[in-house]
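Rotation project, supervised by the postdoc (A.L.). Task for the rotation student: set up a whole-complex structure prediction and record inputs and outputs verbatim in this book. Inputs entered:
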Amino acid sequence: MTLDEARALDAADPLRSFRDRFALPEGVIYLDGNSLGPLPRATAPALGDMIERQWGERLIRSWNEGWIEAPRRIGGKIATLIGAGADEVIVADSTSANLFKLIVAALRLDPKRKTVVSELGNFPTDLHIAEGAVGCVPGAVLKAVPRAEIGAALGDDTALLLLTHVHYKTAERFDMAAWSEKAHVAGALVLWDLSHSAGAVPIDLNGSNADLAVGCGYKYLNGGPGAPAFLHVHTKWQDRLASPLSGWMGHAAPFAFEDGYRPATGMTRWLAGTPPMLGLAGLEASVDLSLEADLGQLWAKSVRLFDAFAAIGKAIGLDCVSPADPARRGSHISFRHPQAYALCQALISRGVIGDFRDPDILRFGLTPLYLGFEDVVRARAILRDVLATGAYLDPEFSKRNAVT
Ligand SMILES: *Cc1c(COP(=O)(O)O)cnc(C)c1O
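Outputs recorded:
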């Protein structure tokens, strides 16, 4: 693809106007929106209103002027992005905390089923939290196996199949309907982590018969660093599962100030403490922006950006570990390189921001909402130059930072 061809594609892109809705810095090609989405222009005014008017002027009255509804209201908006009903999603806590709540709840559903099955190499927090959650339920165990052995690991002791829809390293995507079906045939529930797919990849939770899901607010949803996460429970389970973090905001009547815990109906029971309104204001502004985009157009563009980037990798001899088949992948592309860390740092020093995943993965998020084909072509020139000149071999680029 030439620069002129890229510009022609960008000019014809029906999503082009979304780029100006983000405050992307000059001189940066941002290929890490799958890890921290960039700043929407609507966010600062939304936070300004939250701080100055809603908090500063309205003070505690704001709880009855929209705040107390915010976790359900924003959950309902996210629901339309992931194929769920508006009353099946709530915004609360972090993805890690939401995983804990749902795993323990699923383990308590049927005393005969005590095993959580997951994938070795799943995102670390998913396995770490599962390890902690099984420790809280007598007799429960975590069985983490390689991808090829997941089907065989399911059995009549399985309470829950815990899978991440799109793999954070390789971008491999599970067939949600097929794997939900496998879990159900074994008599288990399925919990999908949508952190690396929500906002970029087509998701149809209800069309796939999914039971439970969680996901991040700060990746493709652009909610800001550490934005609140979301949690989904299919209607059929809402009365039968309850949160082990039985806090007062999930109580049926928090302002009755009762001593005993009675879970609220619907999704409200998955709240634990007081909703973080500053974080929720940022998330709502960015989710509103995502709702303006056509999901079909988003995915079609993601596929073309990926193909353009994959062709570049091939031309310069980089080893792509992400699936070529769009139906089997997410919206990022990963390459394996023995010097992936140094390469990543050298690219960042030239304004191409991707990231590194231990031990040898160089990862680029291809977020269709604001990236253009010109970005891809410009990134190619820099990548090619950094490789050809060996610029990445400078020892400065091998110093490890705390966050990679
Ligand atoms: C990013 C990510 C998380 C992050 O969880 P936090 O609690 O927000 O730190 C969890 N799971 C997956 C699959 C992720 O990609």
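Student's summary: The first helix runs from residue 3 to 11.
Supervisor addendum: The longest strand covers residues 158-164.
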